[in-house]
């Protein structure tokens, strides 16, 4: 395919590391814009593609990941292989290697006649942006609601404290500017993209900025009314159950939902009540309802 890094560098899949390095050095010398000032725009674009291909094939770990189909030609994890690849990145796989590790400094030295690394970059007058790297971070439901500081292990073993904003959603991407792969020729570093996965909660579910929950009530509470305690993300509150409350009725707790960072108001908590009968119906309860039914028949709307 056109964006296959092997095709871009002009090497077979069986090429050795030295073959790949040699092919890149040759193309870099031919295509570098300072070597082709009359056709700078075209050669610079091709040079960027060649550099991107070498970012993958010049890193043994990334090359293996590409060959296994875990990342695509841009170095992005494929959807079905995302988790396994990001786990490898956390463990210090080659995703965090710098351009210097791939030998770019030596290549620029060849192009510009043995100058210092910085001199080559300055003379180039352009840079190739570093690649983005991706991570997967699991957090608890309440951490997503309230926000949290989580430690993320970067490729190569370094750690970064990530501020997870309040109200972050499941599968949301957080972008850390400049925390990705290093740039080439003075180019900006790429970004780190952290995909958030929110663990389910035993009591709460999310619906936009609202929180959904259920609470069981007894038969007498439904008939006579009562005050019951309801759990919220901010602690327990009292909920008034009016007389004659039916199972499935929904009560709204204003402002007890989620307030994402930057929003002035929080959502609500919607509490659904479920009438739960006693495990054993004694004779007195059965007799009472038998008598009551004979005198107070009503149609709840069954068809």
Blueprint of the fold:
Layout: H1 5-9, H2 17-31, H3 40-57, H4 60-67, H5 82-90, H6 104-112, H7 117-124, E1 133-139, H8 141-146, E2 148-153, E3 159-164, E4 173-176, E5 192-198, E6 205-207, E7 210-217, H9 219-224, E8 226-232, E9 235-241, E10 250-253, E11 269-275, H10 283-295
Parallel strand pairs: 1-5, 7-11
Antiparallel strand pairs: 2-3, 4-5, 6-7, 8-9, 10-11
Helix pairs in contact: 2-3, 6-7
Explain what you see.
This protein has 303 residues and is an alpha+beta fold. The chain folds into two domains: 194 residues, Urease metallochaperone UreE, N-terminal domain (HSP40/DNAj peptide-binding domain), CATH 2.60.260; 91 residues, Urease metallochaperone UreE, N-terminal domain (HSP40/DNAj peptide-binding domain, Sandwich). 32% of the residues lie in helices and 22% in strands. Strands 6-7-11-10 form a four-stranded mixed beta sheet. The protein has a three-stranded mixed beta sheet with strand order 1-5-4. A two-stranded antiparallel ribbon has the order 2-3. About 13% of the residues have low confidence.
Strand content: 15-25%
Question: What are the segments in which pLDDT stays under 50 over at least 5 consecutive residues?
Answer: 81-103, 111-125
Shape: elongated
**What is the β-strand count?**
11
How far the N terminus sits from the C terminus, by CA atoms, comes to: 62 Å
What is the CATH class designation of the largest domain? Mainly Beta
Report the mean per-residue pLDDT as an integer: 81
- The class by helix and strand makeup works out as alpha+beta
Oligomer: single chain
Biggest β-sheet description = 4 strands, mixed
Examine the coordinates and then state which fold CATH places here, giving the name of the CATH topology of the largest domain. Answer: HSP40/DNAj peptide-binding domain
CATH superfamily of the largest domain: Urease metallochaperone UreE, N-terminal domain
- How many domain units? 2
| CATH A-level architecture of the largest domain | Sandwich
Give the helix tally.
10
Major β-sheet strand ordering: 6-7-11-10
